[in-house]
């Protein structure tokens, strides 16, 4: 008996006789017991990890994210069978058609609703502006400038073109090159106040007096 089973270890022979199991069954049971660990009275399988190849790890880390994404997409399209219209059953095609039709109807209704809301909003803004203009024109301009959520056609901003004669800058955006033209235009239209007219006249008279004094000084030096 021992000559036939000479490859067995002594403790295996004792366990075989003790458990009345054949030697191959005892060896399998012992291997199973080695591959398990007892934690809090329960057996937990220990995962067997294969040794990683350092060359494959280095090659994987060397690839960029774009290359990894391209490999993932290529694997998705090559490994996954893509169903065409001919491969799909009639019931699935009917379901997809109904879903697409419902989505198109929803988008059309949503677009119409947005158009109606914009139209109603425009009418309300115009009505409010007319009411403010009746009270004070500056209130209407200030209301337009203080509304960040207004319709774009009502937004005002300083122009990027060169100033022209008679150009009046927007409310809150004074431009130095058009101050004289603005004062002249308001003066012609009779919309300038008396104080501003007096200030403009005073500045011109001061300039004339200074110019006359300079001319008299030069004349005195030339005569002397």
Order of helical and strand elements: HHEEHHHHHH
Structural class of the helix and strand makeup? mainly alpha
Q: Approximately what portion of the residues adopt beta-strand conformation?
A: under 5%
The proportion of residues forming helix, as a percent range, comes to 55-70%
Oligomer: single chain
How many E strands? 2
Could you explain the architecture of this structure?
By secondary structure, this protein is mainly alpha-helical. It has a domain at 1-37. 63% of the residues lie in helices and 4% in strands. The protein is built from eight helices and two strands; from the N terminus they run ααββαααααα. It has helices at 10-19, 23-34, 54-62, 65-79, 90-135, 137-145, 179-189, 194-223, and strands spanning 36-39, 42-45. A two-stranded antiparallel sheet has the order 1-2. β1 and β2 form a beta hairpin. α1 packs across α2. The longest helix is centred in the middle third of the chain and has 46 residues, at 90-135. Mean pLDDT is 65; it is low at 1-6, 37-42, 45-51 and 194-201.
How is the topology of this model organized?
Layout: H1 10-19, H2 23-34, E1 36-39, E2 42-45, H3 54-62, H4 65-79, H5 90-135, H6 137-145, H7 179-189, H8 194-223
Antiparallel strand pairs: 1-2
Task: Note the main attributes of this structure.
two-stranded antiparallel sheet, single chain, elongated, disordered N terminus, mainly alpha, 4% strand
């Amino acid at each position: 008996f021992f000559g036939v089973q000479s490859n067995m270890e002594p403790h295996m022979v004792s366990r075989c006789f003790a458990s009345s199991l054949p030697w191959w069954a005892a060896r399998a049971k012992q291997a199973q017991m080695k591959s398990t660990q007892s934690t809090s009275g329960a057996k937990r399988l220990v995962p067997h990890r294969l040794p990683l190849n350092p060359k494959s790890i280095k090659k994987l880390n060397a690839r960029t994210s774009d290359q990894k994404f391209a490999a993932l997409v290529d694997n998705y399209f090559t490994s996954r069978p893509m169903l065409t219209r001919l491969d799909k059953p009639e019931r699935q095609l009917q379901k997809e058609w109904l879903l697409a039709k419902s989505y198109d109807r929803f988008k059309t209704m949503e677009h119409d609703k947005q158009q109606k809301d914009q139209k109603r909003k425009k009418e309300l803004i115009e009505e409010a502006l007319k009411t403010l203009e009746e009270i004070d024109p500056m209130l209407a301009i200030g209301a337009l400038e203080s509304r960040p959520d207004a319709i774009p056609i009502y937004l005002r901003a300083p122009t990027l073109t060169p100033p022209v004669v008679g150009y009046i800058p927007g409310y809150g955006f004074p431009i130095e090159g058009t101050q004289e033209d603005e004062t002249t235009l308001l003066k012609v239209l009779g919309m300038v106040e008396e104080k501003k007219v007096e200030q403009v006249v005073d500045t011109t008279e001061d300039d004339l007096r200074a110019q006359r004094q300079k001319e008299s000084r030069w004349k005195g030096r030339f005569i002397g």
